[in-house]
TrEMBL record:
Matches recorded under Pfam families: NrfD (PF03916)
Topology of this chain in the membrane: Multi-pass membrane protein
Family, as annotated: Belongs to the NrfD family.
Provenance organism: Thermosulfurimonas marina
Protein name: Polysulfide reductase
Cited InterPro entries: Electron_transfer_protein, NrfD-like
Transmembrane segments: 15-43, 55-72, 92-116, 159-180, 192-216, 236-257, 277-299, 306-328, 354-373
Chief site of localization: membrane
Keywords, ordered alphabetically: Cell membrane, Membrane, Transmembrane, Transmembrane helix
């Protein structure tokens, strides 16, 4: 149910784009960010990121599988979802998303299959039953491990990663474009919206990779590759700086110009969005990680301190990006077209698009990642060996 303050038109009492529409760009952002982490190794040869390069791809795939779930839950008739692609309208921005998402997922799957072909070929002789049949199918019957074939796999993988980078950027930049293209909502109407969405996607994706990598290593009692973690922290800090600065600059331009819409937005920021935007998104979950990551990078911190502070920053930034999505999606709908009133949104816990379905949708990629890891070895070396746990882990 929504509360209202001031002059609000009758058709604005209900917030139509709910938690599901907040969650949808959040998941697509993590996909794009995770894919870029993998591409930094496969395309730009950032060798330090090799330990997480395959994990990042499977991580992106698990979130990619769940990407459309919030939208399907939001739709009144999810069985009609393919109509948007089968009978597209040239002015429909969402139809374009369907094509971009489908193309990106095909590229992602192809890259994963080419990367894992040699791994599956090495595992086949020691595998039986259904798993052996599955591995044979995933190699397309090609178990050749000659240097020429491995070079071909590597070449195709590099090209797919190269093509995937702009696709990942378009995938999430397009989400920002959809919001930025809604001219009636002053809070969304900025050409920087796709760029801000893309940068925050990189932040959430890298933060997700850091958190996932550290949790798995701790759970398996394996040593953490500090060079890899330190490199991830540096990239996370860099993208966070760009993200925060660009978002504040965009807000600063609106404040300086003081056009008509600003008088509505300043009351939105200082009123209904003060806690979620100023306090949570900016002061707590942006500036504190910004300082922590800066210290980790400039002081070259290592050991347990690096792992703990990197985990803390990753968790805070995952919350920060979700706050950003909330403030954009819900905040934009709070402003009445009268310019003199606001609508408030309080999601229910058990309702169809409420808190519980949101938690389940956000947990689903983690569960899918667990099962995908049973098929796709995440940490196995190129020689087909798993890293061993350390005896005195603490």
């Amino acid at each position: 149910m929504a509360d209202v303050v001031g002059y609000v038109f009758p058709n604005e009492h209900h917030i139509h784009w709910s938690l599901m529409i907040v969650t949808y760009p959040y998941i697509t952002g993590i996909i794009a960010g995770a894919f870029i982490v993998s591409s930094l190794y496969h395309v730009f040869h950032v060798k330090a990121l090799k330990p997480v390069s395959r994990f990042a791809l499977i991580f992106a795939l698990s979130f990619g599988i769940c990407c459309t779930w919030p939208l399907l839950n939001h739709l009144g008739h999810p069985e009609r979802c393919f109509n948007i692609m089968l009978t597209p309208h040239p002015t429909s921005a969402m139809a374009g998303f369907g094509y971009v998402y489908s193309t990106y997922m095909i590229i992602l799957l192809l890259e994963i299959l080419f990367i894992y072909r040699a791994v599956f070929a090495r595992l086949l002789p020691q595998t039986t039953g259904f798993k052996a049949t599955l591995y044979r199918a995933l190699t397309f019957g090609n178990t050749d491990l000659s240097p020429a074939t491995l070079r071909f796999d590597h070449k195709v993988t590099s090209w797919l990663a190269l093509i995937g980078i702009p696709m990942a950027c378009v995938l999430h930049g397009y989400v920002g474009f959809i919001f930025g293209g809604v001219k009636a909502v002053h809070w969304w109407l900025t050409p920087l919206m796709p760029v801000i969405f893309l940068l925050s996607a990189c932040v959430s994706g890298i933060a997700g990779i850091i958190l996932g990598y550290l949790l798995v290593q701790w759970w398996k009692r394996r040593p953490v590759d500090e060079e890899c973690l330190s490199t991830l922290v540096k990239y996370l800090w860099g993208f966070l700086i760009l993200d925060v600065v660009l978002e504040l600059l965009d807000l600063g331009v609106h404040a300086y110009l003081r056009v008509e819409s600003w008088h509505v937005l300043e009351h939105l920021i200082s009123g209904p969005l003060f806690t979620s935007f100023i306090v949570m998104q900016i002061l707590i979950f942006s500036f504190i990680p910004l300082v922590i990551l800066g210290v980790l990078t400039l002081a070259n911190v290592r050991g347990k301190a690096l792992q703990i502070l990197a985990t803390l920053s990753a968790v805070m930034l995952l919350i920060q990006v979700y706050c950003m999505r909330w403030n954009v999606v819900i905040g934009g709908q709070m402003v009445s077209k009268s310019g003199r009133g606001y609508t408030f949104y309080h999601p229910g816990f058990f309702e169809k698009e409420g808190i519980l379905p949101t938690i389940l949708i956000l947990l689903a990629p983690v569960i899918i990642l667990f099962f995908l890891a049973k098929v796709f070895p995440l940490w196995m070396t190129e020689e087909g060996q798993n890293p061993q746990p350390i005896k005195n882990f603490n």
